[in-house]
Amino acid sequence: MPTLEEVYRKYLDMVFRICSRYCQDKQEAEDLTQETFLRLERSLPSFRGDSVLGTWIYRISTNACLDHLRRRKVRTRLHADYLDSMVVGNLNSGGDKVLAKIDLDRILGHFRPIVRQTLFLTLAEGLSYREAAEVLDLSPAAVAKTVTRFMEKFRSKEAKRVRFNQAVGKACP
Amino acid sequence: MGLRGFSDLRPDGRATLDLKEADGREAAGGFSLWKLDKLMNGELPQAEAAALREAISRSPQAMRYVEKYSALHLDVPLGKSRMPSADGKQGRAARMSAWIALRRMLGTGNGRRNLGFALATLLLAGTGMWALQLRGKGDPKAEKAVVGFAPKGLEDVMVRILISGKEYEAGSVANAGPGETLGVAYRSPRIVSAQIWFLEEGGTPQAMSGEGSLQWPAAPGWRPAPVRILLEGDWHRQTVWVITAFSAFTAAEALEAVAGKAPRADLHAHIFKLAQ
């Protein structure tokens, strides 16, 4: 079992990098890094070694970022301008115009935590289904199903919205 | 990324997965940030690292990302509390570190708890509650204490409005309609007097919050004001002013502030636009 000091020495920069992707400035990223290590300290005794330590730390770090983004969303509007361009690029790399509209606001919505984490890892962090499955300790098929369902719902909602706007446009030109 | 998911479902609803396709993100232009993190932390197998480096070299955006994030380095020893800032306010990280230190001193986990520390914590909690009680009563002593912890630079009142769980800064346009509730959040180094006024299209400014000024306690951090206003009537756009001052003011003074001619230096009109 690695000690917290060992984990801290080896993974501090990695956790800081992950946190920096979702923070406005260095101070905020530092605070989030500290919070992540506080979580790591709490969870370290329960680390069973089933997954690679780096994978487990990545899961905890991205969870901390997800919670941070949700808190920020409650406090104020979530703006994409401080997100890293790679995250924005991943979110916008949908297969078509409709899927490219998926933003973090949608992912942070009222989902079960595991669904939210799955969507966050695949859509914002850009992990493949197999990678996300490894991080979340799920089967790749389960990850695929979750993402697909979300996309189907999103696509159907967008279609409804477009139809509604067209109807309103016709009624009130 | 997106289309990949749709081809994974069989007509019977069970997922089948083409893992080769699912792992082909780099070819599709997206990058797994986890892989990039592992690469930068030296945790990727050699062959995979070489393939990823090649993919990165083809993408200017990924190159910029790796250059930027490889240079990121944090040099803070574990458990070191950040020094309090000049205004005496500790950051969240400092409080976290202090909490870690306190937990270690209390020896949580092995059953040995220091009675002295427990008593000291109780004493601190009691003092905190006493200070909060004074603050609630608007005691000048407590107000002075709050000023001592106010963030540097907070000399004026800052106001945001809350509609459907979203906050809007002063000067911004908020999406709102009849039937929704308008709330206010604020920061102030001192007790603040406030009035809320509104103007619908073609009307004249009217007080939303009734006669007289509302009194809100000092708030060094953002705090919801004890006021909720139901937006009624038939309107498409309206302007809302939250007028604040450090002492009570009259409706006439508020109207002058709404017109942009504040009669006192501490009287400010924070303007918001509501549109459906």
Give an overview in words:
- The complex is a heterodimer of chains A (173) and B (276).
- Chain A is an all-alpha fold and 173 residues long.
- Chain A has 8 helices and no strands.
- In chain A, helix 1 packs across helix 3.
- The relative contact order of chain A is 0.09.
- Chain B has 276 residues and is of the alpha+beta class.
- In chain B, the strands form 2 sheets. In chain B, strands 3, 5, 6, 7, 9 and 10 form a 6-stranded mixed β-sheet that branches. A 4-stranded antiparallel β-sheet of chain B has the order 2-1-4-8.
- In chain B, a hairpin with a 2-residue loop joins strand 1 and strand 2.
- The radius of gyration of chain B is 28 Å and the shape is extended.
- The model of chain B is unreliable at 1-28, 81-90, 108-113 and 138-152 (pLDDT under 50).
- Classes of the chains: A mainly alpha (173), B alpha+beta (276).
Distance between the termini of chain B: 35 Å
Question: What fraction strand of chain A?
Answer: under 5%
**Helix-strand makeup class of chain A:** mainly alpha
Helix content of chain A: over 70%
> Strand tally of chain A, please?
0
Weakly predicted, low-confidence segments of chain B: 1-28, 81-90, 108-113, 138-152
Provide the helix percentage of chain B.
25-40%
Tally of contiguous helical segments of chain B: 10
Mean pLDDT of chain B: 71
Alpha-beta content class of chain B: alpha+beta
Give the overall shape of chain B, derived from the CA principal axes: extended
Order of helical and strand elements of chain A: HHHHHHHH
Radius of gyration of chain B: 28 Å
